[in-house]
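Q: Can I borrow your eye for a moment on a structure tokenisation matter? Would you mind producing a protein record, from residues through to fold? Write it directly below this note and I will take it from there.
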Amino acid sequence: MNKGALALLVHGGTENWSPLRWKNRFDDVCAGRRVLQLPDATFDPAEVHYAAVWKPHPGELAAFPNLRVIFNLGAGVDALMADKSLPDVPLVRVAVDDLTERMTEYVVLHVLMHHRQELYLRESQRAKRWRRNRNGRPAQSRSASWGSARWAQTPPMRCAGSGFASLAGAGARDRSTASIALTARKRCSRSCGAPTSWSACCR
């Protein structure tokens, strides 16, 4: 086995992010290549050419002097960008074919929950409090998606199909739209009392 090794650095908390589960996946497709589930004291860091990661700890990747590529196993790269010692190598995002659709469903779900005041109604039901609370039509609300990735562009279009005044996904490369989306997020924070991350439904 003379191929560069692949180091697996997965820090999750759910069954899907089980390091052993990911190792089994890579073992199935990496014939002839050593897949290292770290921590593992039986390897030389110099033999690692590739790293498949999810939320790696700061400094972990800098330990591999011959690292060539980093494969990020999820959609978020916050942990990587926060690592001041991150090696200067290509960063590749690994995604499944239906990621955009699943993320869009998640965003639309929460936009509708906010618009229809679902959390308020649940709490009212638990408290046996039946106070009428009007909510406007979708056209009177604004939804926005924050980010420049492809999946961030789809939710606003789906929300627009439900009648919302939607803004296109906005990122740092589109400053005019980004400023509008940021304004929408601030308005939503003021109206519902809680900050939003990358999606918002605002009155």
